[in-house]
Amino acid sequence: MSKPTLGIIGGGQLGSMLAIAANKLDIKTIIFCDDIDAPAQNFSNEFIHGDYNDQNKINEFVNKVDIITFEFENIPFETLNEINKSKPVLPKPSVNRIIQHRLAEKDFINKLNIRTTRYVSIEKKSEIDSVQDMLPGLLKTTTLGYDGKGQYLIQKIEDLETLNIDFSKGYILEKLVKLKKEISIIITRFDNKKYEIYEPVENLHEEQILKYSKIPAEIESKILEQSKLWAMQIAEELKYVGTLCVEFFIDRNDNLYVNEIAPRVHNSGHLTINAYNVSQFENHIRAVCKLEQVALKKISNAKMKNIIGNEISFYREKKYEQNEFFFDYLKKEIKSKRKMGHLTTLIK
Ligand code: AMP
Description:
Blueprint: E1 5-9, H1 13-24, E2 28-33, E3 46-49, H2 55-64, E4 67-70, H3 77-86, H4 93-99, H5 102-111, E5 119-122, E6 137-141, E7 151-154, H6 159-162, E8 171-175, E9 179-191, E10 194-197, E11 201-206, E12 209-215, H7 221-237, E13 242-251, E14 256-262, H8 272-275, H9 280-288, E15 301-308, H10 311-317, E16 324-328, E17 339-347
Parallel strand pairs: 1-2, 1-4, 2-3
Antiparallel strand pairs: 5-8, 6-7, 6-8, 9-10, 9-11, 9-13, 11-12, 12-15, 13-14, 15-17, 16-17
Helix pairs in contact: 1-9, 3-4
Bound molecules: adenosine monophosphate.
């Protein structure tokens, strides 16, 4: 059987690493992105630039590929659903409809009897008055937030006077968890009850942006098992195909909560490129292109550092040891808080 051509919507670093993994498997990739400078065009076979609502460009893209996947979850559900009528989109668009909306996502997780933080929907500023037991809390936009964008820490009700919050958007108010640790599970689902699952990754955020990841996570075995079980349960319930990330909180009493689900390859899984025989990116390509499932083997423990903003200049000049793997995302413009690259170090 000849290999399919894979279309990838989105052209950032995740698209780049997916294209590199596909290339290794002899799969041709075409990236479709609304950013003319999308870094992933450096690694794909072809690049199509267009707005995500430009029907002509979408048609051009869809006609050229056999299977479509995406590197970010905020593509409108309607767009993915339309594309799915002519070429398979994997993971399937209905997954995005749930996960794009923080309330729908949390309701879905709770229905599986999996713990999340306490949360309420907030549509009007005055509604916060009646749920003061949820404070201190984080007010988050229900859609389109990432890396702390669209999030407000509300310690007490008076804080609402000083924060300039646009309540024309929908919000969710989450009780603040007293965090001990954050971990994530990367899992690739191929088919019914067919998975490859990586060990939990321990993550450290700074200003709500992931800064460091490492394996092994320093957690109790009970938490290790529970996090894996919950990730499998979520992937199975979604009938997911491809790589998925479940992010967790562990509080000071060692309670585990699901924070959120990313229906895609994930920043905390970058270390799998060097630490495992098959990376999260390769596994995603294998699953969506229906290639062979290969049993995961860990090669080494590892830690990963995200290189953010101006830090990139130093890393572009630095000399590296044999156990260090630097990846430059080749972004045209350096911006503060922008992920510019990462460094994975294999450790004992
Ligand atoms: P999110 O965009 O929801 O993943 O939030 C980004 C980061 O903010 C998380 O990784 C946590 O470090 C922090 N955070 C978000 N929600 C909460 C919460 N309910 N309690 C404590 N920390 C949180």
